[in-house]
Request: fold
Amino acid sequence: MVSPSKFIHILNHLFMTINIQYIQMPTSEAMDQLLTNKLQKLGRKYDFIIRADVFFKLENDPSGNGRICEMRLSVPGPRIFAKSNQNDFEKAAAATIKELETQLQKRKGVFKKH
Reply:
């Protein structure tokens, strides 16, 4: 028999919603898969994540950057947001996830205090 709290924990892992949008650019199945795997890993580590919204944008940037990744996580309390502008979408996604993880660690610390 599974306890109710353990059951809810299992459901959160199964039903974390991941929404990936490509704004004014073509979609990428490989990027979708890579990002879904990374976000699911983050969801296993921080089981209070409810939803992840990801936005990829391409901008003309003379410095060579312009590959923008924005992520918004729905968690208890205020949403968590991070953004990165790199010369490659994979680098931008990795930098954004790293920033989100820093914010999630802080949020988890707040939960433990209460």
